[in-house]
From TrEMBL, chain A:
This is Glutamyl-tRNA(Gln) amidotransferase subunit A. Residues 26-474 form the Amidase domain. Keywords: ATP-binding, Ligase, Nucleotide-binding, Protein biosynthesis. It is an enzyme of class 6 (ligase). InterPro entries: Amidase (IPR000120), Amidase_CS (IPR020556), Amidase_dom (IPR023631), AS_sf (IPR036928), GatA (IPR004412). It comes from Nocardioides pini. It catalyses: L-glutamyl-tRNA(Gln) + L-glutamine + ATP + H2O = L-glutaminyl-tRNA(Gln) + L-glutamate + ADP + phosphate + H(+). It holds the Pfam family Amidase. The gene is gatA.
TrEMBL record, chain B:
Heterotrimer of A, B and C subunits. It comes from Nocardioides pini. Its EC number is 6.3.5.-. Allows the formation of correctly charged Asn-tRNA(Asn) or Gln-tRNA(Gln) through the transamidation of misacylated Asp-tRNA(Asn) or Glu-tRNA(Gln) in organisms which lack either or both of asparaginyl-tRNA or glutaminyl-tRNA synthetases. The reaction takes place in the presence of glutamine and ATP through an activated phospho-Asp-tRNA(Asn) or phospho-Glu-tRNA(Gln). Keywords: ATP-binding, Ligase, Nucleotide-binding, Protein biosynthesis. It catalyses: L-glutamyl-tRNA(Gln) + L-glutamine + ATP + H2O = L-glutaminyl-tRNA(Gln) + L-glutamate + ADP + phosphate + H(+); L-aspartyl-tRNA(Asn) + L-glutamine + ATP + H2O = L-asparaginyl-tRNA(Asn) + L-glutamate + ADP + phosphate + 2 H(+). The lineage of its organism: Bacteria, Bacillati, Actinomycetota, Actinomycetes, Propionibacteriales. This is Aspartyl/glutamyl-tRNA(Asn/Gln) amidotransferase subunit C. Belongs to the GatC family. The gene is gatC.
Amino acid sequence: MSDLTRSTAAALAEGLAAGEVTSVALTEAHLDRIDAVDGAVHAFLHVDRDGALADAADSDARRARGEARGPLDGVPIAVKDVLTTRGLPTTCGSKILEGWVPPYDATVVARLREAGLPILGKTNMDEFAMGSSTEHSAYGPTRNPWDLDRIPGGSGGGSAAAVAAFEAPLAIGTDTGGSIRQPGAVTGTVGVKPTYGGVSRYGLVALANSLDQAGPVTRTVLDAAMLHDVIGGHDPRDSTSIQQDWPSFTEAARAGATADMSGVKVGVITELAGEGWQGGVMARFQESVDLLVAAGAEVVEVSCPSFVHALATYYLILPAEASSNLAKFDAMRYGLRVTPEGDPSAEEVMRATRDAGFGDEVKRRIILGTYALSSGYYDAYYGQAQKIRTLISRDFDAAFADVDVLVSPTAPTTAFKLGEKLDDPMAMYLNDLATIPANLAGVPGISVPNGLADEDGLPSGFQVLAPALADDRVYRVGAALEALHADQWGGPLLDKAPVLAGAAR
Amino acid sequence: MPEISRDEVAHLAMLARIDLSDAELDHLAPQLSVILESVASINGVAGDDVPPTSHALPLTNVFREDVVVPGLTAEEALSGAPAVEDQRFSVPRILGEEA
């Protein structure tokens, strides 16, 4: 095989199956690529060279015995640092967990290991997944491979940048309000948020339990589908895990790649456009919609009036859940302990530790959540937000009674400059405008790269949303759009990304 | 909706067990006010007839069979602890000095 790091995971899987390449060779190629470019990109917080190569050697031995565990056995992967990995550090991008080595694997990680995917390392993220730029990582920002002065999106900027910079063919992200899809949009990669409950949350360090969902971060829709087939499905260790058999998402993506959209009814969400939406992003969006129409789709405009309240609703529900979840970082059982002078009480140790261990954004959201849950404000804020959550779900129900999928641009703008919105929380929050409704309603969504904005030559993303449990639709429509654009461009969008000069870690 | 004062932020920080410095309070209080002002727009949007949603998809309680499954060993459970004594988490005093 030619350049291993530029191949899709599906092509690598075929190469492994045909005996054209070994897992050790392709794992080594990716580790070398990480060594060459991650000094500049900083997608990884931890690289496990020895562990990944040992897993790769095991995979090759299995395959030689004819015992490969599935198509992706031997294809390496990067994992967002919010999922616990037995024996590998897990920091969640926070100083409060610096050096913590979990004694157990998240279910997603256990499934990757069972399926034989060598884990290259852990990827950078906004602290506890709070952010849209990966600048809130306590370990420094990740840079966008398209322009190293710009953000890679967040919170999963590390996973998106890792696949965009060809440091990994596959990665795992988590999406609470867009943290898989928005980084996908601004780095020209694919990201999928499955139906809530479709992928186990066991071992995913919770930001907001009712919104969090892990999913695939890849360069192609088919790769995402293949990865989803590995990590998805019921887990008795997660009480919110859905008990049902899922169809093959790989087959859905392959069916979509024929780019026949006849019989598919697509709804364009009226509310996700207008003021604040970058012209180049809207132009690319319209172009994608036109391609779907040309491929046979019926397109109508659909109004979801409650979506205008989604952002405010989210920024009450999320801090409320986060403030409660992060109470476990109490300096007693794991993580940082800061002991003030004298003979401090446990409470004083807790206060000093949480001040030293949490960054600005985490403190903002914990305090906001504590406020929203305070007696006297509970009904006005948290109670009201939960009711609007119902209205948003009803908007989705009404829309999906009429159309098969809903579409919008994934993010209102292309990647902005590092530092530009760091100290303006509301400006930062606006990045998640289009992605948040799916989390509030639990429905699945994908972001597919759909071109470069004329103003700045940076990638934009096209979002497809489907009803809960109908994740196969986002793969089908996503793969169709990807195929239509590839025809138009003569190859994948990432071929247009600048070549990264070698910069050692 | 009330604006959030510096004193209120200090009180909330105490409730949340975070020691905020004066500089942090000066920095955070106005930012929180801006955020609260923005989210206040939801007030009155949903009437009394709208039921709240806590989880997007309907849930029922889940039980497992009452059989022993392997868990962490004591060593594993204590492996990340800041201080350990006699196979237990060692913590600072929990009572006031006068107690």
